[in-house]
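Posted in: Protein Modeling Q&A

I'm a second-year student putting together a small comparison for a lab meeting, and my supervisor asked me to include a predicted structure for Cupin domain-containing protein. I've never done this before, so apologies if this is the wrong subforum. The sequence is pasted below exactly as I got it from our records. If anyone can share the structure token output, I'd also love a short note on what stands out.
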Amino acid sequence: MSSNTILRAAAVVGLFVIVGPAPSQPRPSGTTRSDLQRHDLSASGREVLQARVDFAPGSSFPRHKHPGEEIIYVIEGTLEYELPGKGWIMLKKGDVLFVPDGGVHAARNRSSVPAAELATYVLVKGKPLTQFVE
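Accepted answer (user: helix_wrangler)
Welcome! Here is the predicted structure, written out as tokens:
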């Protein structure tokens, strides 16, 4: 390995240490996301992200979309989802939901107990996970 290659690699690492990873968007109050796994897929330019999303009682996540599909499995409590053309639908523990690529949706926990989902995203690699929509 040439000394130029080593210096370039060191510069990139140093820049990452100084600047850090790209900042994430602020989460709405009462919601948390815990990333479980992220992997490149065999489909070119695609990756999968699996995360647990927790909702405190009375919390909500505003209208947004993703650069890919989202597959939701409710693992705790009851959640409501707003989907285009379907309005608000209620899902309970064990229920599933598919959100198509770019589908604008919202979620909320209107109950008095915590709720959670397992979210699996099939994403265009390198794009931000969430884009909020007015």
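A couple of things worth pointing out for your meeting: The chain has one helix and ten strands. Confidence is low (pLDDT under 50) at residues 4-24.
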